[in-house]
């Protein structure tokens, strides 16, 4: 009976995790705005990590639960599942901490053809320099500066 309940709970937790990983609904493809200009200034910045907090602990806990369910039988199996879940969550959390470090980035000021200044913050691109002619692809948070 306990095995059936734990199987159902494991399946439910896995479905919940997969549902959380799904991004926003698929949207119609919008045309990308591309502008051209010259880089006026580049400032180095630190970008926050894009990893979601707690995912490492959840995935580690689920893996530990799965491994623990393979060990022993009866109450020994129950103990192994609890210890596996706790241990997996701790290990998963520690692994995720390594990926939470800030990422080197650039704030780039571009003067586009009509004279307007645009600021784009993106991951570091060593191929960009002040005075270089570039394209600004996209807009808002999705804007990127690329060499011409």
TrEMBL record:
GO CC, alphabetical: outer membrane
Record's keyword terms, sorted: Membrane, Transmembrane, Transmembrane helix
Domain Glycine zipper 2TM residue range list: 56-96
Transmembrane segments: 52-73
InterPro entries found in the cross-reference section: Gly_zipper_2TM_dom
UniProt KW Disulfide bond keyword: no
Highest taxon listed in the record's lineage: Bacteria
Pfam families associated with the record: Rick_17kDa_Anti
Name of protein: Surface antigen
Species the sequence originates in: Candidatus Accumulibacter vicinus
């Amino acid at each position: 009976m306990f095995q059936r309940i734990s199987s159902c709970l494991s399946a439910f937790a896995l479905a919940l995790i997969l549902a959380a990983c799904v991004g926003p609904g698929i949207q119609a493809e919008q045309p990308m705005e591309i502008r051209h200009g010259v880089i006026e200034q580049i400032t180095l910045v630190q970008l926050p990590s894009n990893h979601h907090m707690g995912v490492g602990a959840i995935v580690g806990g689920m893996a530990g639960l799965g491994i623990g369910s393979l060990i022993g039988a009866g109450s020994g199996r129950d103990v192994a599942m609890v210890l596996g879940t706790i241990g997996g969550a701790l290990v998963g959390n520690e692994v995720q901490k390594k990926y939470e470090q800030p990422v080197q980035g650039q704030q780039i000021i571009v003067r586009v053809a009509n004279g307007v200044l645009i600021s784009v913050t993106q991951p570091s691109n060593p191929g960009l320099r002040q005075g270089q002619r570039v394209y600004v692809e996209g807009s808002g948070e999705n804007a990127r500066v690329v060499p011409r």
